[in-house]
Amino acid sequence: MDPWYITLIKAFLVSIALLGGFAYLTLIQRKLLGRMQHRYGPNRVGPFGLLQPIADAIKAIFKEDIVVTAADKFVYYLAPFLSISFALVAFGAIPAGPANSLFGFDPWVMDLDIGLLYVFAATSIGVYGIFLGGWASNNKYSLLGSLRSAAQMISYELGLGLSALTVILITGSLNFREIVDFNVWGMHPLLWIPLIIAFITYFISSTAEINNTPFDLPEAEQELVAGYLTEYSSIKWALYMMAEYVNLFTAAAVLSSLFLGGWRGPAFLDQVIPGISQWPLIWLLLKMAMIVFTFIWLQATLPRFRYDQVMRIGWIWLFEIALFAALLTAALIAFVV
Amino acid sequence: MSKTITKNNKKETISNKSEFKTKLMRINMGPQHPSTHGVLRLVVDLEGEVVAAVKPQIGYLHTGFEKTMENRSYMQNVTYPNRMDYTASFSHDLAYVLSAEKLMDAVVPIRAQRVRVLLTELNRIASHLIYFATGLLDMGALTLYFYTMREREDILDLFEMIAGARMNYGYFRIGGLAYDVPEGFEEKLRAFISKFPKMMQQYADLFAKNDIFLARSKGIGVLSQEIALDYAMTGPSLRATGVGLDFRKAAPYSGYEDYDFNVPTATAGDVYSRFMVRFEEMGESLKIVEQALNRLEPGPIKDPSRHISLPPRDELASSMEAVIFHFKLVTEGFHPAKAESYVATESARGELGYFLVSDGGSMPYRVKVRVPSLINLQALESACKGGLFADLVMTLASFDPILGDIDK
Questions:
Q1: Biggest alpha carbon distance in chain B?
Q2: Considering only alpha carbons, which residue of chain A is nearest residue B220?
Q3: Chain A neighbors of B391, CB-CB under 8 A
Q4: pLDDT value of residue B366
């Protein structure tokens, strides 16, 4: 256990890293989308467009901050902050390496025994940011966008939770550190079946949870202009965008911690460089990068689902398949293993 | 609606109307909206996400072309048609010159006809490429946009070679063409013809088999054949309901009867069939382009009559007569006999024709354009009512409206 002031410093550093990561994720996203679409993407500001995020940030800060006259002022201001704070807070429970590996400190902010529940709770509160923002804007497009958003996130949390349940049943813990430490090679081989099903449902659910294509309905600009963001400008708009990208990071981190071994590297590499699979940060970041790349890849490839189709997929397919995986795991654990 | 419930052994009737008031939400889509394909305004009544009514409001791009054309000579008027439909300019050019030529009894040389057909069909492909780009964009698929724009760019390069401009070409003249096609055009066009089928396969791979695209377009925005005919719809949107009406086949003009091509139709009348009819049409247009190119033989490109075409430039220095004809044509223009003319053509969007009335003067007495976008748009409400809001956007895109074409 680290003293409280170290934890505070770590929390601060994680927030800074996430916000910096957000800035450069926008650049990477635009570059990748550009490459996939026969164009260059940003390459004017700085070498290879590396200063583009900074230019964007300056623009966002200095743009006129328009507040709608008919808006519910308090909620209107509160909503983007709710969104970004809970997006940042959610990341705290994810471990990035073995204990005492980061200059003698633990590479996580909190070692929570209910880590998974904590992440789910924090990301769920993030929905309020979107919902309240759309409602407080007093704009019909915003209202439709936020209603869609709330409905979508709530329906997909079910699939998310049930898929995670499979992992919880197998590892017997809600603590991310213990989930990562679980020796997956030592378990009964039949348990791989529900785990793989749960991985797929969890991946699809988290795609919907973070409003990525093909589930990017809340801001379907062709229908709803900018959805819940329509009446937001300047830095408040930037806060929403931040929250969205930070959620992307969190989803990638949770996904890799639950299913891909988190901060652990492949053990066979230890024969080349001893101890490399135990190095902190690097493996988690690599796995997150892979998942984030897949999300961006989806953005370039797929059209968007319709509202009712999204609901049907969430409630009829994902919910039931994830439930099946969880029940299968429970049955396997009770009768076979 | 009212329902009866039992409460405290007493039957009470609760009228939903008084207890739970529901109101339709009226949304103004446009004129500045990302998916109205121009400055179209849709007044949409929504019941939740279900569309209860759609009223298209037009006129935001009204330019008064018809009235302007009544105050210009027939020759000067060549400038205006291509500005109405900026994605398929050559179709409008062709429709206007055909109608004016009918008024004048001009004889268009065979080479000029071939070039006209070739360019119009290329323009049809370019227009359909925009259709796919923006239609799929409305569905949230970003990438196809850049793929189709890449090939459209090749077509625009060809047009730039011909007319010196990427839009508003003004290359057709009454009685023929402004000048012959430049050197190097044929090779470049052949390169495009050999490349394009591969590119079409790419588009098909990207969207036609995509499950999300199918789920979003099949059975959406369905128009029955009767409704489509009642609204006098034409073009691909009508052919998607099973009516094989194509003016290139039904009333051939510009020598379309010589070309071998099919008219793709579909029967479902939904967004998907409107997309696929246009997709197959691109292949047919490419066939026509290839045939026209193969049959392109050297020859005159203008009506030889001095009363219709300007005399060749080199004659002006040596022939007094040529100078007089040139002066008369440029300052005053020609005087067609008192008559009316209308030639129905098949533009990328449907039946397009210019109704010209001549009172014997050098300017048309009346110009009326039968534009396909405007007439097809009327069926929007029948296709969208009861559907979802997201489908409204898709249905509108599948009608392929061009606001310049609608508002004139």
A1: 111
A2: A306
A3: 306
A4: 92
Residue B163: CB partners within 8 Å, gap ≥ 6? B169, B170, B171
DSSP secondary structure letters along B295-325: T------B---TTTSPPPGGGGGT-HHHHHH
Structural contact between residues A185 and A275, judged by C-beta atoms closer than 8 angstroms: no
How many whole angstroms separate alpha carbon A186 and alpha carbon B192?
60
Global pTM exceeds 0.90? no
**Which run of H or of E encompasses B94?**
helix B89-104
SS3 B223: coil
Q: What is the pLDDT of residues A66-81, one digit of tens each?
A: 888 888 888 888 888 8
Contact A221 B390 (CB under 8 A): no
Is the C-alpha dihedral spanning B148, B154, B159, B165 positive or negative?
positive
Considering only CB atoms, B140 lies closest to which of A36, A140, A213, namely: A213
Phi and psi (nearest 5°) for B57? Answer: -110, 120
Interface test with A, best of B143, B145, B147 (most A CBs within 10 A): B143
For residue B41, what is the enclosing H or E element?
strand B41-47
B213 vs A: CB within 8 A: yes
Q: Residues 137..156 of B with a Cβ closer than 8 Å to A: which?
A: 137-143, 145-147, 150
ipTM for the assembly: 0.79
Other Cβ atoms less than 10 A from the Cβ of A30: the count is 20
How does pLDDT run across B223-240, given as a tens digit for each residue? 888 999 999 999 899 999
Each residue of A297-328: b (16+ CB within 10 Å) or e? eebbbbbbbbbebbbebbeeebbebbbbbbeb
Cα–Cα distance for residue pair A273/B42, rounded to 1 Å: 65
Query: What is the Cα–Cα distance from A109 to A12, expressed in whole angstroms?
Result: 9
- Is residue B345 within 8 A of residue B247, CB to CB? The reply is yes
A9: which 2 tokens? 């410093």
Domains of chain B by start residue, with CATH: 34-406 (1.10.645.10)
| Range with the poorest average pLDDT among A134-148, A218-232, B25-39 | A218-232
Low pLDDT (below 70) residues in chain B: 1-21
